[in-house]
Design goal:
This protein has 2 domains: 4-41; 46-264, P-loop containing nucleotide triphosphate hydrolases (Rossmann fold, 3-Layer(aba) Sandwich), CATH 3.40.50. The protein is an alpha/beta fold and 272 residues long. The two termini are 21 Å apart. Helix 1 runs antiparallel to helix 2, helix 5 (143-152) runs parallel beside helix 7 and helix 7 (188-200) runs parallel beside helix 8 (218-235). The radius of gyration is 22 Å and the shape is globular. It has helices at residues 4-18, 23-41, 88-95, 118-125, 143-152, 162-172, 188-200, 218-235; strands at residues 46-55, 62-72, 77-81, 103-108, 111-112, 128-131, 206-210, 238-242, 254-259, 262-264. It has 8 helices and 10 strands. Strands 6-7-8-3-9-10 form a 6-stranded mixed beta sheet, with helices on both faces. A 4-stranded antiparallel beta sheet has the order 2-1-4-5, with helices on one face. The structure holds adenosine-5'-triphosphate (ATP) and magnesium ion (MG). Residues 88-89, 210 line the site of magnesium ion.
């Protein structure tokens, strides 16, 4: 795929050539180039090539991810499913910069993770929202303070009214009236919605969710993923969601299936 600079130079040259031609012709060429540039700009947000991962040392070394090739694009909701122990959480944590890549290539937001320094990984993590099964809310902070915390990590928000932002995000997930509650006084579904608000408030371009509905009843689980879907659409962020929950598969643009550390095609033409 040509680089953006090459495209721009090519575009300039073509426009110069078109200069003496009739205007209709140059309009057509111009719009073709515009279409081309739109497709060039839709580079993957996450791109893994021949990614392998191992746990343990020596005789106990065990391969848990094998030759993972995967690209996630802006605004996509991708569901990752597969049997217990197949490597889903391991892949998710690699994609979130929560563990170092060992072999192959993994690019996140244009940055190669293989060989990245701790500092680079830390910076990367600030651009990613995480939602886990156990919501990891801080018990000694209220719902609002838990959500606010995400913004406190970003210098650009320090001048802004982050309390108001946190409250409006809680309103977006239907918890405007629970802003001052501590997690112990919230239901599982409500806590999960606070976790969503926290993951999405800083407009992360990537949200990684590991079994966000596992502890929830049918209705709360559905509410939680629909809120994620709506907010993601509004913010244009990419969501990678690991789940065993068949009832939420329909929210995905794409479903990928993992078995024994590999991404495999499913018989019913699930895209990989
Ligand atoms: N820190 C670790 N050290 C050693 N082995 C690990 C570690 N974390 C995971 N594993 C092993 O790696 C394999 C993949 O685990 P992983 O947690 O990625 O699976 P999973 O698909 O998320 O499973 P589940 O659906 O049960 O959450 C498993 O065999 C697991 O035992
Ligand atoms: Mg898991």
């Amino acid at each position: 795929m040509p680089k953006i600079e090459d495209r721009d130079r090519y575009r300039q040259e073509l426009l110069m050539k078109c200069f003496h031609r009739n205007s209709r012709e140059s309009t057509i060429i111009n719009s073709l180039l515009a279409m081309n540039s739109a497709s060039l700009l839709s580079q993957p947000i996450i791109s893994a090539h021949n990614l392998n991962h191992y746990f343990g040392q020596g005789d106990l070394r065990k391969q848990v991810l094998s030759d993972i090739n995967l690209e996630l694009y802006s605004g996509e909701i991708v569901i990752l499913t597969g049997p217990s122990g197949s490597g889903k959480t391991t892949l998710l944590t690699l994609m979130g910069g929560l563990r170092s890549a060992q072999s192959g290539s993994l690019q996140i937001l244009g940055q190669e993770i293989l060989g990245a320094s701790t500092q680079q990984l830390t910076q990367l993590r600030q651009q990613i929202g995480y939602i886990f099964q156990a919501q990891n809310l801080l018990e000694f902070l209220t719902a609002k303070e838990n959500v606010r915390m995400s913004l406190e990590l970003h210098d650009e928000y320090l001048e802004q009214d982050i309390d108001a932002k946190a409250i409006s995000m809680l309103e977006a997930v239907g918890l405007g009236n629970r802003a001052d509650y501590y997690p112990e006084n919230l239901s599982g579904g409500q806590k999960q919605r606070v976790a969503i608000a926290r993951a999405l408030i800083s407009h992360s371009s990537i949200v990684l969710a590991d079994e966000p509905t596992a502890a929830l009843d049918r209705k709360s689980g559905r509410d939680v993923v629909e809120i994620m879907q709506q907010l993601a659409k509004k913010q244009g962020c990419t969501i990678l969601l690991v789940t065993h929950d068949n009832r939420i598969l329909d929210i995905a643009n794409r479903i990928i299936y993992m078995e024994d550390g590999r991404l495999v095609r499913q018989p019913d033409s699930v895209a990989v």
